Amino acid sequence: MWPDLIKHLQDAELTQAQIAERVGCSQPTIHRLLSGETLDPSFSVGVALIDFAKKIGVITREDLRPDLWPPEPARAKEPLAEKEENSHV
């Protein structure tokens, strides 16, 4: 997962140093994740990598193990106030 995510960020014309700066870690940490030398980053680095990739549009939440995500909640068709008024009828 991490090598693919970092490759997506690099495809967006970002260097390892730029990625590291944006997520708050060192460039060697990014290199180790990309090479597979490190399989799991710290929680804060992992979250920052995912958040940054989502922020710049490189990935969506569905790209990250879509089988683990619940379906999107249905949007309400009518405002809540109208529902409450209609429920007293």
Tell me what you see in this structure.
The protein is mostly helical and 89 residues long. The protein has a single domain (2-68), classed as Orthogonal Bundle (434 Repressor (Amino-terminal Domain)). The chain is 54% helix and 0% strand. It contains 5 helices and no strands. The chain has helices spanning 2-11, 16-23, 27-35, 43-55, 80-87. The protein is elongated. The mean pLDDT is 82.
Protein topology:
Elements: H1 2-11, H2 16-23, H3 27-35, H4 43-55, H5 80-87
Helix pairs in contact: 1-3, 1-4, 2-3
Note the total helix count. 5
> Which CATH top level class fits?
Mainly Alpha
Q: Which blocks of ≥5 consecutive residues have pLDDT under 50?
A: none
Classify the beta-strand content into a percent band. Answer: under 5%
- Computed over alpha carbons, the radius of gyration is 19 Å
Spell out the helices and strands N to C.
Answer: HHHHH
Major sheet: size, sense and barrel closure? none
Mean pLDDT figure:
82
Write down the overall geometry: elongated
Whole-number count of domains: 1
User: Can you tell me the CATH topology?
Assistant: 434 Repressor (Amino-terminal Domain)
Number of strands: 0
